[in-house]
Amino acid sequence: MSLGNLKIAARLMVGFGLLVVLIASLSGYAVHSGRANLESVGNVFSFLDNGALMERIDKRMFSGRMQLWIALATGEPTYWEKSDADFARSRENLKKLIENTSHPERRAKAEAVSRDFEEYLVKVAKLRTIGGKNPALETPEAKALAADVMSARVKLDEKAESLTTEYRQAGTEQGEVAVKSINRGIDLSILVGAISVVIGMVLAFFISRSITNPVNAMTRAMGVLAGGDTSVEIPATGQKDEIGEMAHAVQVFKDNAIRVKAMQKEQEDAKARAEAERKQAMLNMADSFESAVMGLVKGVSAQASEMQATSQSMSAGAQQTSAQAATVAAAAQEATANVQTVAAAAEELSSSISEISRQVAEAAQVSATASEETARTNAMVQGLAHAADKIGEVVSLINDIAAQTNLLALNATIEAARAGDAGKGFAVVANEVKNLANQTARATEEISSQVGSVQEETRRAVDAIRNIATVIEQVQQISSGIASAVEEQGAATAEIARNVQEAAKGTQDVSANVQGITQTASETGAASQQVLAASGELARNSETLRAEVDKFLDGVRAG
Asked: Which residue ranges form the domains of the chain, and what is each CATH number?
């Protein structure tokens, strides 16, 4: 389908409607992507919270075991109380971890850790019954209980470490998913934005050419026609849009101008013929007067007859002129109606452009909403980075505690060696403490590495979200450019409506001139009737004069 067969309002609605659909789709995808990214970031937060909670559980278990062995070695009640408090906090944190874990397998593992921890506490309670003296630790019963506690502790540590590793891996995987989703959203936003710009420029080029080229050609043709040249070809008469209707109206002007010129030529020819006949009649009358009175009378009678015929011809010509003027007046009225139809179409076009402007404003509002969603996501990812930094600080603190504990265990081993047989039990405790400190150091190094990975992924997520915000700002600028283009089209439509109103005024002037022609034709007809009556009277007077001359001649002959 050619653009010339579409109304101007339809062209603008198709062009800008397509741009609005593309912008709305881009904004909708941005909102959907932002929400999906928000959910992914929330999952990362959840995994980090659970991982941090598991770290606190491990810390409390470790502290509880330390206090337990110190209490067994020294028999101080204060260490028993500290150990009980640490184990109680570990129990509470395990309960909270189970409540926060929704994944079935990880929840089952957390419950298994909780059961092993309860079994470990039961065995610890049995070990406490031997008291806090070194000789008591050397009994076969104490050694068996200690070995049982150590075995339960190894089993508990393995499951706890496995669960902690799984939380770290899940957080890392979810972070990677979030980064991929954000990058995919950025790529699609850039692609759709570029396509929208290209389509907008192409549509603007073709639509503007489909309007301005015919209008410019029409303006040139109207200028030539206004100069009196009716041979000019009226362009765009085959189009079915508002410009085609304007072309038909201008064609009517051209046809009316041609008919008016023809009528003027006919009137001039009639006037020339009448003038020639009048001159000939005067010559005939002069000849008649020169020949004789009878010739004069005969000439007067003959001229009277000719004047009757001429007046009848003038009357018929006046009637024909009046009828043609009426036809021209009807054509001018029809042209006026066509121009008013064009003016109404221009007003409807202006209303359509206003509606397009409103829709572009709504698309800009949707883009602003997407920008706000992106800002919220950015704030949450910044919070994630802050949480990761805090975790790194906690890991550093744990690492410092492990180093100090290792030093304490070394000092305890030296003191136990100095005590001889009396310090063997305390040496066992110191060795256990040293092993725990070494395990803690290795675990904190692994945690530090994972926390560093999370921080790096978080920084990438922040950069990706910042890029999304930049793309959305570009979309808002494109929406502003479209709104400006719509305003320019509205101004152009108002200019078209003003030109059409001036054309309507021109048709009214044509109607007024045609009415003047009609009035003149009527006056000519009345004058021709008067001439006809006068010529009849002259004929009668000539007959009377002839009779008197005959009578006079008869009297002369008789005398």
From this structure: 3-207 (1.20.120), 341-516 (1.10.287.950)
